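Figure caption, in words: inputs first, then the predicted bound structure.
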Amino acid sequence: MNLPLKAYWDLLARHIYPQKGRFALLTSLLLGSIGLRIVNPQVMRAFIDSALAGGALQALLVNGLAFLGIALVQQAVMIVVTYLGENVAWTATNALRAELARHALSLDMSFHNEHAPGELIERIDGDMTEMAAFFSQFVLNLIGNGLLLVGILAALFIEDWRAGLGFSLYAVVVILVLNRVKDIAVPDQKARRQAEAELFGFVEEQLAGTEDIRANGAVDFSIRELFHRQANIFHHSRRAHFKRWIIENAMGLSMAIGMILAVLSGAWLFVGGAITIGTVYLFVHYINLLEEPIWAMTREIETFQTIGACVERLTEMRRLQPEVRDGRGAILAVRPPGLVFERVSFSYNSGDPVLSDLTFDLAPGRVLGLLGRTGSGKTTLARLVFRLYDPADGRIALGGADLRDLQLEALRRSVAIVTQDVQLFQASLRDNLTFFDRSIPDERILAVLEELGLGDWLRSLPDGLDSYLETGGKGLSAGEAQLVAFTRVFLRDPGLVILDEASSRLDPATEQHLERAVEKLLQGRTAIIIAHRLGTVQRADEIMILEGGRLGEYGERLQLAADPASYFHHLLQTGLEEVLA
Ligand SMILES: Nc1ncnc2c1ncn2[C@@H]1O[C@H](COP(=O)(O)OP(=O)(O)O)[C@@H](O)[C@H]1O
Ligand SMILES: [Mg+2]
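Bound structure (adenosine-5'-diphosphate present):
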């Protein structure tokens, strides 16, 4: 994809426009600074010429002070320019970061399945950091240095057209040559980065597998691999360094040649009487000054290419739209709501069907026990109810309203899913329970904890609700984490609860402990209990068994249990674990 210039322009315009005041200031300061850099050597030339001609001390002093003053002012202006430039760039890219993060969060689960968190971080943060360079350096370096280059050459033309022409040619040749050599190190740098990425991947894998590696005596192998990978990095690193050294020296050589040209042509013109010694100094000074814009011109083209890739990815990501759209806002009036599946079919990424032609009707307040082998589509069913995905065919209704008509926020307030993986945040227990909703009063949290039988546990914590939890739930037992999840559900008070193998990781003793909490949780709510163990579905009114995404068996639990021909009856006889594993 080749982006039209308009894409860059839109981006600049959209994010620079809100800062137009600061941007205008930045531009004028930049122009001023360039002007000062070109003018200052002229002051020095006047000083030299007047000193050689035996000028008055007073005039020389004024001249010298002016030179120093201008140099200082110019540096001060440059500081402000750099500050402003970074500021404008970061303001713009931070706005972009926020915009992209919000956009990414609004995208479908299928998007998030395809894009790993690391990749998103790289796009939202990494790419934006590069873009900051676009916003600031585009102005500072490309335009600024371009103008400086033109300014210097113009000043030389004014001094003497032959010098102007000569040095213009010189600048063109140097830029062309540098452009040829500047990329020689790129393949090695890429290879080095790749080798580093491989090393980090390897280290991560090895650290994660420490126990197995030691247990199986693979330590020597690990160390040898580590050595090889580091040797690989070193190999590419050395080549890259060497080539960069060549580039830097090419620049140095060009500058030295420029200096020789300046001195020789200056001497020649001076001997011919065309210019003064001061002007010879001017030539030398200007050639020195040329180094910066020439270098920048060479480098910026490269940055521009990286940024091109960023802008491309950015545009691509912005173009993605969620497929799960907000409904028009039907009201969920019924509480607890009933749940109806009508001939629902679904597949991930248009692959094999995961759910096919699924129909059932769960009346308000009833509890459905959902059984099925791993991979039969139980979790997928829960995701459809939560509208993380939309079914390919058929219709799901909650409380009489089509899911697609409900507003996502209202839907997600009315449905809660508890899985075996309870996500805990590095925050206080209170924030973990309320999801950072500070409007929930402590009394309510305490009441819910008490109701779930967590009162004693809370009192055993050193700081009560202010106790600090670690990520990954370190310090909480699996049972406690589960109860934290239940408390969250209570605080949100949804009408439909889905427990997705919520207690499958707990040992039977802990599970017993949770019984009371589960009972409370189901009171006055419609529920689906997805379970591995038969004990867990004992409180279900209805039983549904999924077989490869199809309805295997569906009916009243007591009826099925009493029917010797039913699969459920068979399961009760044999014990679920063996059959469903
Ligand atoms: N995010 C996903 N992307 C693609 N396929 C998936 C995804 N999640 C689950 N599947 C597939 O869908 C099928 C049903 O999975 P799931 O609903 O998790 O089953 P269960 O919860 O009954 O074990 C499985 O074949 C699984 O591999
Ligand atoms: Mg599952």
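The chain has a mean pLDDT of 85.
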